[in-house]
Amino acid sequence: MTLSERKLKILRAIITDYIETAEPVGSRTLSRKYDLGVSAATIRNEMAELEEEGYLKQLHTSSGRVPSDKAYRLYVDKLMESRILAKIQRESLRDNLMQKFHEVQNLLEHSAEYLSQLTDYTSIAMAEKTKENRIKHLQLVPVDEERILVVLIMDTGLVKNTLLRIGEKLDPRELQKITNLLNHHLQGMEIRKVSQLVIENIQREFYEYRRTIEMILLHLQEVVKEVEQIDVFFSGTTNIFNFPEFNDIVKARSFLAMLEEKELIKNLLTLPDQEGLRVSIGRENLYDIAQECSLVTTTYKIDNRTIGHLSVIGPTRMDYTKVVSIMIQLNKQLNDLLRDNY
Amino acid sequence: MTLSERKLKILRAIITDYIETAEPVGSRTLSRKYDLGVSAATIRNEMAELEEEGYLKQLHTSSGRVPSDKAYRLYVDKLMESRILAKIQRESLRDNLMQKFHEVQNLLEHSAEYLSQLTDYTSIAMAEKTKENRIKHLQLVPVDEERILVVLIMDTGLVKNTLLRIGEKLDPRELQKITNLLNHHLQGMEIRKVSQLVIENIQREFYEYRRTIEMILLHLQEVVKEVEQIDVFFSGTTNIFNFPEFNDIVKARSFLAMLEEKELIKNLLTLPDQEGLRVSIGRENLYDIAQECSLVTTTYKIDNRTIGHLSVIGPTRMDYTKVVSIMIQLNKQLNDLLRDNY
DNA sequence: ATTAGCACTCACTTTAATCGAGTGCTAATT
DNA sequence: AATTAGCACTCGATTAAAGTGAGTGCTAAT
Fold first, then answer.
1. Nearest-CA distance from A103 to chain B in Å?
2. Which nucleotide is nearest to A40 (CA to C1')?
3. A262–chain B nearest CA distance, Å
4. What is the mean pLDDT of chain A?
5. Contact B329, B82 (CB under 8 A)
6. For A249 and D19, how far is CA from C1' in angstroms?
7. What residue of B is the nearest CA neighbor of A138?
8. Domain span at residue B181?
9. Averaging pLDDT over each range in A90-94, B27-31, B149-153, which range is the top one?
10. Last-in-domain residue among A59, A79, A99
11. Is the per-residue pLDDT at B48 higher than 80?
């Protein structure tokens, strides 16, 4: 059943007002503040019906009304007009990103920083640690007599390097030899599949350096574990204090504590495999603690493989218009950058 | 003027109690809870004197008393007995660190995590970005036709790598040649001193690759800026909510906002060049916002050059005994680790 | 020098009174 | 039939007043 034009108009006004003020909105205020062409009494009647239909909630009998998650959903899907960012802002966005573009990890982090500044909400950057990371290149770099640096480059652009203390002395030429050998065997291989068997095969072929090779590869397996750890970055976490709904210590605390639960955050950001922009509102989120929040999330891919997510999190009373339009722009710019570089 | 034995005893009891309860302590409670051998009235008189001498403060005429920063200073310097950690805990500390030891950056971060867990306060890890970073080794790694990875290893153990899009195709052998050349010229050099002049010198000597070399070295200069950024890591930030003195939203917020000021944090952690453990209490800190906090900080060095700081921050009513003894242990273990590895 | 006794202080808690934005219903109006 | 004005009622929020109790300083007794 669809809502009448007038009801939509009223609902939109209520949502707009509530997003702005965080106060339950009543019929009188509404009729005074917005030019709806009907009297407060009429609005009252419509509001009563909107409540029956589940779009509004009343905190107690004599209070104004507050939009429900269902209302926000309608608003996001149908009612709001997403603003187009001014060209100047778009360009400063691009410059800002270009400047920071050195590593994929950092790119996401910098984007998150920028995003929280632009939106005044908290933003989250998460690097997806797929289990299908393939080895693109492996390089052994001499550091001093005792130690080498193992540099591991993944096809997703992820770079990981770790110091390894090696028993024997190896001159650079030998190291390069081993590097070449390892690359020959490992390039394109999924990093998880570097099993004992593979190690033994390589060792057999290059018996002279079997000990060194074993050390390196065992080390690699340790690194894998680290690589698979979730890598989450936040920006603007204290922005949450700006919102009256988090203005009591318990709420603020549980919000910040939620952010520390990396597993939970991961699940919040990776839910369904939807294209483009995803808005999840209040109780649509499966976790209790997140049910007073909304998230706007975008997913980034290289060659159709997910490499990370960027998200804005705030109260359900979020300025969806602002956030969505900013994220659409950022999304475009980032995707261009990624396409050009990978 | 030194305090009488009895006054010290009373003062210690007051501090202990206040650290435990966060409530102003009165003479009656004191005489009941601690076995001081004198009556509440006597304690009252002594407390009045301690207040005159600046060790105690009264929030209002009819409240109990609270230790001043001066009292905490005395406590830390003279009164508290630092506990020795049980051997088992020491060993788990060591295991925990060994396991995580891959990179210097991470080592500090992991230590911070561990520290906040052990102490229940907030901990800070800061990697010192000295301007005297010297280049230990530089390695160019082929990634694909268009791009190379520049791996920069500093003598402090810091490793930085960045992707560089290079115009022309270079085969691995050529890259190695350039790598060798660059190392020959740059090893041991302070990274800041890689000036235009140096670049030109190198280019002259190896004219064939002058464009590539220029790109790499200009890129390096960008990286320098990044390297010099302050690198601060926090753990257990929400622990602050555990303390009643931060139980109002304004205090909690300003504490968390303070943590976001990297410059300020940097200055808090690097103040005087004191050996070993440094405790700075309340108003001893130069920044307004930090004046309700105390910090316990240790500094880490390699070859007498500072590489980072580890700190615990909490209310001035901090359990100094606990924090100091934990940090002394951690300090030992970490220094051992660093000595063995650098 | 120490301590018991006592009047006094003052933040904090509890209870009561008041206020006002908002509602639902009814009757009048368009 | 739809809209609106009018009105009694609800209920959280604010303000005011009264009561509570841990603590203090002073005095006089030990």
1. 6
2. D4
3. 13
4. 87
5. no
6. 29
7. B141
8. 135-228
9. B27-31
10. A79
11. yes
Q: Are residues A68 and A97 in the same domain?
A: no
| pLDDT single digits (tens) B141-197 | 888 887 888 898 888 777 888 888 777 777 888 888 888 888 998 898 887 777 777
Residues A317 and A237 in one domain: yes
Instruction: Give the whole-angstrom CA distance, residue B24 versus residue B63.
Output: 7
Q: Which of A154-158, B3-7, B231-235, B324-328 has the lowest mean pLDDT?
A: A154-158
Whether A124 and A144 share a structural domain: no
Q: Determine contact, residues A111/A125, Cβ cutoff 8 Å.
A: yes
Name the nucleotide nearest B63; use CA and C1'.
D23
Cβ contact B163–A223 (<8 Å): no
Q: Are residues B203 and B281 in the same domain?
A: no
Distances (CA, A) of A342 to A106, A306, A335, B236, B334: 15, 13, 10, 37, 40
**Cβ within 8 Å, pair B139-A143:** no
Question: End of a domain among A191, A207, A228?
Answer: A228
Nucleotides of D under 7 A from a protein CB: 3-6, 9-12, 21-27
At A53, the pLDDT band (50, 70, 90 cuts) reads very high
C1' of nucleotide D11: residue with nearest CA: A62
Residue nearest to nucleotide D6 (CA to C1'): A41
Q: Is B229 on the interface with A (CB under 8 A)?
A: no
Same domain, A282 and A329: yes
Within this chain, do residues B294 and B257 fall inside the same structural domain, yes or no? yes
Asked if A325 and A234 sit in the same domain, the reply is yes
pLDDT tens across B258-272, in order? 999 999 999 999 876
Q: Check pLDDT > 90 for residue A197.
A: no
A224 shares its domain with A237: no
pLDDT band of residue B129 (cuts 50, 70, 90) is confident
Residue showing tokens 């010229």: B185
Domain total for chain B? 3
Per-window interface: A 84-143 vs B, CB < 8 A: 102-103, 136-137, 139, 141-143
Q: What is the CATH number of the domain that holds B36?
A: 1.10.10.10
> What CATH number does the domain containing B168 carry?
3.30.390.60
Contact A6, A38 (CB under 8 A): yes
- Taking CB atoms within 8 Å and a gap of at least 24, the contacts of B104-111 are B104/B156, B104/B157, B104/B158, B104/B307, B104/B308, B105/B158, B105/B231, B107/B334, B107/B337, B108/B233, B108/B300, B108/B308, B108/B310, B109/B233, B109/B235, B111/B310, B111/B330, B111/B334
Strands A305-315 and B122-127: unpaired
